[in-house]
Design brief:
This protein has about 190 residues and is α/β, with parallel strands linked by helices. About 35% of the residues lie in helices and about 20% in strands.
Length: about 190
């Protein structure tokens, strides 16, 4: 049972879909995530975008991935197919793999549902074995239930994706579900 859910879309940004960190398979997650977001909005389930907003000197940029999702650039914008709805959805910027690390995500989640707070985070986006994994870790340690949209997450390789899903299930007790199953759970 999914209680007090929030949909969190991780790194669904231009630089990950059409820019320097794009992968061909990423297009497969767009339609399932669109359906999930539409159902969430119709059922008053919060939709949160956890997006990279790097500075040029950030560790991820300098030491690992090169210039990507630099704050204020087109590459850092959410892709058109998954644009946030003004006045309804939330955007939480991050500078590391985790959506929780030094961001306002946790206080936001705890303030929703008239102060009762979110109980279940439903994660979609990129990358199963990196940003989804680190966001899941921090959610787990903060007491949230974790659901992963199996057809709504992806990684650089199929192996990374599959290993990431197994790790999330085993280590963080994440429930891996197809988007249609999640939608059935959140529809009131």
């Amino acid at each position: 049972m999914i209680n007090n859910p929030a949909i969190i879309l991780v790194d669904v940004q231009n630089d990950f879909f059409t820019g320097p960190l794009k992968i061909k398979r990423v297009i497969n997650i767009v339609e399932p995530l669109q359906r999930l977001v539409v159902a969430a909005r119709k059922n008053d389930v919060p939709v949160i975008y956890s997006i990279d907003a790097h500075y040029p000197q950030d560790v991820e940029v300098v030491r690992k991935w090169g210039s990507h999702a630099i704050k204020g650039t087109q590459g850092a914008q959410v892709i058109d197919d998954l644009k946030p709805e003004d006045g309804k959805d939330y955007i939480v910027e991050k500078r590391t793999y985790s959506g929780f690390y030094e961001t306002g995500l946790d206080p936001l989640l705890r303030s929703l549902y008239k102060g009762e707070g979110v109980k279940t985070v439903v994660l979609g986006g990129l990358h199963t074995n990196m940003c989804i994994r680190h966001t899941s870790a921090d959610a787990f340690f903060r007491g949230y239930q974790i659901v992963i949209a199996k057809d709504g997450v992806e990684a650089f390789t199929v192996e990374d994706h599959e290993q990431g899903l197994k790790y999330l299930e085993y280590v963080y007790n994440a429930k891996v579900m197809m988007t249609n199953e999640i939608i059935q759970e959140i529809v009131k």
